């Protein structure tokens, strides 16, 4: 840990403070292969810059932050600190956590002083430095308050004071403002940049992890756009906008737009679907039937197409969740996604215009184009007892898609199948059976016979 | 019409296809049913048998299943009694505001009073009431176990009833559920999970009292009942080490079997009543439950039950007029008031007689009682402190490591349920051989019984330390001592307090059988309130017995209010992790 008060002057202007090379991270799963969370990442944090890791949830950005901080040892690859292999914790890093991580039994000043004591400072010095840090983040007067008396924004200020009090070489922030209300978050972002750019700044670089594009464009000099499944660095975008930045300036909005394009290029690729010779099993995006139908209704009300980011802000959904719904709808041929638009496909139009009973029939047709549903249905029909266990379906998923989160895929599978009246799933006994419900009745109603 | 036939045909063939598949699970289930029937018969034989002046125990290993069966029956009978008591008492307290103000404080006090103080009195009274058969003694034992099991279940049921979400209650009102329907479809399911977990805890606590009551000897009067506790005490008296080991194994086996065959399946089944969206931390699984589900017999029984309980035809729902509903409520209130008055009168009556009795106690005796009380208090606190000293480090080590806690969890559960009083006879023998006076020896005995509560709670607390707080401590280079004092100890403090309260309560109860023990035919006693109670009971000195019990109860309740409640308040405000 660099002693408080010193900037690491030995670092060249753009040499790497810390770096990861060819880093991959896997987590073991009870069934099947380990889950590959990060794949072959190369990244440098240089001096005097703000780096942002941007990506949807599940792309491993928090994991990458922890690897850089030395909290996790990567399965493969190496982590370097000042060009030397990192052993244990990264001494130049202080972290601000998403959930604040304050100790509820300590007051604000005790929380800040605790880390200074841990760093070896004497009591008097620690108290002075803590008081200074608390003043810097604007919490003067709240030193004796307990965390439960503070709002979310104030709690995060304490987290920031705690980190800044150590004058760390690098400040790591893990989605620091995602649990703070939007207005407070805006002012906190400005304050972080203010502290970082102030004349007597001690912190050299900041690494921020976020899924909010505007936040990232506001704060970062270098934006690392990551993709998920598995987590990789897709593109690095340089942000040369001068500070102080304005959320409404045309240059900023243009960069936001550019990032939108990059992300949709990654997440909703325009690659024309090759007509498959054999039916393949693909991972099901975690989206419910009602969400997908809701998307179709939304598009229908807006003339059949809409920009994907507009949809996200209109429906106030996190971008990553919306992408899943769109991808699911696309997989079922209900929508098309040229560039950033989401457009109703002919099948989607039919579904939207249909009555509920017919929707189920159409839905059933759609999901039966997917390999997994065909396999399971065939297995149920062929089995002597007319039932198939959960284990069987899980195994099929794991064999076909070993690197995916099979539990999530299973849940989506059950949701879609139930909506289509494709099968009965008994959760207690964990078996799938042929559908035994009022299918006959719905057909009767349709055909008008009694 | 032609759609109907394939449907019925399909269902019929499906049912026919299943019936010949009489799997071996069904065979096991049948065997178990037969064993239960035999067990009931054998137990009834024992209960109505003649009262013997002293218990006759056959120390051979072949007799162990019989004694285990007897112990098990007593425990289960007391549990059923506790269950009905909690449903009734809890329902009453939750529904009637006036009654609640009386019933809940009573329950609170009952929970704090060391019930073993009443054991000598209760046993003597019930034996006098049924001089010729075993029933009096058995009833006393069941009653004592009941007092160890009932209170926490009642509290749990009461709290569940009071915390049913408003919207669920309003659904029942709007759709005009009858009181029985409301109980069955809303209230009981909502309380199911709490009742199940508290039942497990109660059964575990019940073994403690079971062992004590089965091995109860008062001076020259032998009140022992045939069961594992008496088997153990006879084995110690005869120095039969092999028999002692068999007894311990039998007790452990009974606990494990009950857990695997009864509690785990019920816990898994009760998961469907969980109200919060997220599932309980670890997914509960029970191999026995999955087994039973595959049994055709059980499934058909289940279906038959469902069919018989559901309505065969739509019945006319009688419109309960407003007047009828008002009169129903009036009747309910009347009955409740009557019961309260009866309780009050009973209390006054009993109180008066108690007062008359206490007047017979001399001032010197009162002074002696108070001194003894202080001594016992000292022993209780000392035992709790000793227990804390070793359980906190061990508990932290286990609880903080996910791997260790998973590995050791069944062992810890067994240790927490295993009744230490079963080991008292052996421990007393060791202490006597080592020449340790009972003044200190009783502390050891108390420790033996109550340290597991602290350990259990520390492990629970350690595994509940939030991950982000631990990560923050790691990332900010907290040293070991800092981690201990600034993170772990404050984080487990609420759990530690719960452990202390339970341990101290258990120690008070244990004092009655640890400050006064019967060893090799002689009665050993030390100066203390527990000893005084036992001696007074042995000498049938009713006034002194009452005075001692009153003093013990008063001391425990006072300590509760002054110390434990304050610590609890501190734990809930300063150390609470729910921000």
Description:
The complex is a heterodimer of chains A (450) and B (579). In chain A, α2 (108-118) packs across α3 (123-136), α6 (213-219) crosses α7 (250-267) and α14 (390-400) crosses α15. Chain A is of the alpha/beta class and 450 residues long. Mean pLDDT of chain A is 85; it is low at 1-12 and 439-450. The longest helix of chain A is centred in the middle third of the chain and has 18 residues, at 250-267. In chain A, β12 and β13 (341-344) form a beta hairpin. Chain A has 16 helices and 16 strands. By secondary structure, chain B is an all-alpha fold. Chain B is 77% helix and 2% strand. In chain B, β1 and β2 form a beta hairpin. Chain B is globular, with a radius of gyration of 27 Å. Chain B starts with a helix and ends in a 6-residue tail after the last helix. The chains are: A alpha/beta (450), B mainly alpha (579). Chain A binds chain B through residues 1, 69, 71, 89, 93-95, 97-101, 103-106, 114-115, 117-119, 146-148, 162, 166, 385-386, 428-429, 440, 444, and chain B through 3, 7, 14, 17, 272, 293, 468-469, 471-472, 474-479, 482, 486-487, 490, 493, 574-577, 579.
